[in-house]
Amino acid sequence: METTTRDPENVALFATLAADWWNPEGSSRLLHRINPARLGYVREQLVSHFGLDARNRRALAGLKALDIGCGAGLLTEPLARMGAEVEGLDAGEDVIAAARAHASAQGLDIRYTAGDVIAFAHGREASYDFITCLEVIEHVTEIEEFLSSLSNLLKPGGLLIFSTPNRTPLSWAVLIAGAEKIAKLIPESGHDWRKFVTPDELTQKLAASGLRATQISGLSWSPTRGFHISADVSINYIGTAVHA
């Protein structure tokens, strides 16, 4: 049987959200609200890692990128606007169809692929300067194989940027009980708290895949600042990795 990282139930669930993905007040509104903080972190890390001009609106020009678990393109499109030659990969055909339609309407040249990352990586050379997988790790079924595929796709000297929820009592209270069950900011049954990984666990899994975590920060929320990067990793964290 072919190894796959996709969870069929998750893929089916997010397929039902595809048409509403770009609605900032719709079922993906939490992603819309968290995206500016994520984008700021991604840009800052890439500028630092590759020695780019932070003042340039298209600072990522010349870099080839892969956004894994791209959904309908909330991160992929801004990366393209910042100059990157970016591709998007997602396990769900419905969300990829929504991503293609939205990019086309925006006049953006983005190549989107529906499929599993293991099959996508098979036989390919390491060809991406940077890879993003934001809020994806908690949805895959085979984390080790998933990370190994990312390692195989990343160029020597490239940068992996990831974010995922931590597995703590607080993350259960905030993300599962609060955001999912009470506030309905996250689709019902969209997450399994038992599949969340701690920063230490992820660091070890990255190392086993030939990657070294270089930076980990918290992705936090406050009434005064909204979503922002912090030192508190107790709920959600974002980080970078390079080839070991």
In total, the number of strands is 8
Q: CATH-wise, what's the superfamily?
A: Vaccinia Virus protein VP39
Number of domains: 1
CATH topology: Rossmann fold
Helix/strand structural class: alpha/beta
* First-to-last CA distance: 31 Å
Note the overall shape: globular
Q: What is the mean pLDDT?
A: 94
CATH class: Alpha Beta
Indicate the proportion of strand residues: 15-25%
CATH architecture assignment name: 3-Layer(aba) Sandwich
Question: What is the topology, as strand order, of the major beta sheet?
Answer: 3-2-1-4-5-8-6-7
Give start-end ranges of low-pLDDT stretches. none
Task: Please explain how this structure is put together.
The protein has 244 residues and is of the alpha/beta class. It has a single domain (8-243), classed as 3-Layer(aba) Sandwich (Rossmann fold). The chain is 36% helix and 24% strand. The chain is built from eight helices and eight strands, in the order ααβαβαβαβαβααβββ. It has helices spanning 8-15, 29-50, 76-81, 93-105, 117-121, 143-153, 169-182, 199-208, and strands spanning 64-68, 85-90, 111-114, 128-134, 154-165, 211-222, 226-230, 236-243. It has an eight-stranded mixed β-sheet with strand order 3-2-1-4-5-8-6-7. The two termini are 31 Å apart. The model has no long low-confidence stretch (mean pLDDT 94).
